[in-house]
Amino acid sequence: MKNQSEAANRPLGPFLTIWTGQVFSLLGSNLVQFALIWWLTQETGSATVLAIASMMAFLPQIFLSPFAGALVDRWSRRTVMIAADGMIALATLALAGLFALDIVAVWHIYALMFVRSLGTAFHWPAMQASTSLMVPEKHLARIAGLNQALEGAALIVGPPLGALLLDLLPMQGVLAVDIVTALIAITPLLFIAVPQPEQAAREDAPVIRSVLSDMRDGFQYVWSWPGMVALIGITVVLKLAMTPAFSLIPLLVNQHFGGDAAQYSLVEVAIGIGLVTGGVVLSAWGGFRRKIITTLSGVAILGMSFLALGMLPGGLFQPAVGAAFIMGLSIPLIDGPFMAIIQSSAAPEMQGRVFTLVGSLLSASSPIALAAAGPVADWLGLQVWYLAAGIMCLLAGIAGIAMPALVNIEQNASDGQTTFDASLGAEASAR
């Protein structure tokens, strides 16, 4: 892989400059997300409204991510990131104007959340696919750990900062903060070059047909890589267990442990601190030599934390906070090496499609998991779901260790890529 070998000789400074801009953008997004959800809660008091708002954040990534991945692999990734951040900033500016004029409606919030999700559907694969071309492979797991720590820190800092700004500023002022942080994220991209992967030669063809062909190539690429198919399968199972477990935490705190809003916030902070701790640990340590072993270990740790929440009696709230911390700690150990495996093993020109294919499958599994978990929890009790989620995670970890294709995913990646690249070359010659 010529592009990735060149990345080994590049300094980290340019990437870290871009990454720092993204830190500000993520913080701005988190505090604005909190502010908008709180506004909807105060104005409507409707769970249905909040559910629809959440769906607006899912829909673009479920249905558009495969197209976005194919386009990211064809377009300038730097331009994609600038356009995505700029689109989100303009939509936020428009909503700030509606608040200033006092003519905002609930559907305007839905529209902004849809646009933000649409921008993320393009920005996220562009950033992830660019990372492998700017960061030496030996540092990929550490960068992934930093990303996880950043997400945890944003989870800790964003909501209280959003609440503080709501007390100090009108809503349009809070939205203005997000616009400023988006501009901070865009500025480094205007001056720093982002490497592009080498593209296979293509004959001129209609754009739609070319994009569909790229999507097909992406599916074929993943399908021809048994280790990646196994990894995605285990990740989907994990998502089916994890999404409801995290979503049901408010009910678990209130109904099982008899807690109030303060205790619920304590659990959320514990998860955030766990995310930061896990991210810092992964960044400093780098994980096991085989990244997949780190991921599967994280899956097992997450499963044990779910089992603890499923078995704790209602009077033991403090151990539940400890289990929440372990939950957060395990997430970077799972996600960080998972991302690093794709970045270091997938062909650079295919990474956008691989990332968005994975993102689409995981996003699509979330509403399915929630639809299943709700009736189970209502019928058998909240703790039953945590016990089921813990067992699912442990079984997924054991199954992963037992799969040679998965355990050797990094070592076997090049063979699958060579075969795929050869098939592409033969197809191109046939044309």
Description:
Helices cover 84% and strands 0% of the residues. It is an all-alpha fold and 431 residues long. The chain has one domain (2-197, 207-419): MFS general substrate transporter like domains (Growth Hormone, Chain: A).
Q: Radius of gyration, rounded?
A: 22 Å
- Total number of domains: 1
- The helix count comes to 18
**N to C succession of SSEs:** HHHHHHHHHHHHHHHHHH
Low-confidence stretches: 200-205, 414-431
Tally of strands:
0
Largest sheet, if any?
none
CATH fold title: Growth Hormone, Chain: A
Given helix and strand content, the structural type is: mainly alpha
User: What is the CATH architecture term?
Assistant: Up-down Bundle
Estimate the mean pLDDT confidence. 76
* Fraction of residues in β-strands: under 5%
Just give the CATH class: Mainly Alpha
CATH superfamily (homologous) name: MFS general substrate transporter like domains
Characteristic terms for this protein:
single chain; 431 residues; mainly alpha; Growth Hormone, Chain: A; 18 helices; 84% helix
Question: Gist?
Answer:
With 431 residues, the protein is mostly helical. The protein is built from 18 helices and no strands. It starts with a helix and ends with a helix.
Outline the fold blueprint:
Layout: H1 2-7, H2 13-44, H3 47-63, H4 65-72, H5 77-100, H6 106-134, H7 140-168, H8 171-191, H9 207-223, H10 226-247, H11 249-256, H12 261-285, H13 291-311, H14 317-345, H15 351-380, H16 382-401, H17 404-407, H18 409-430
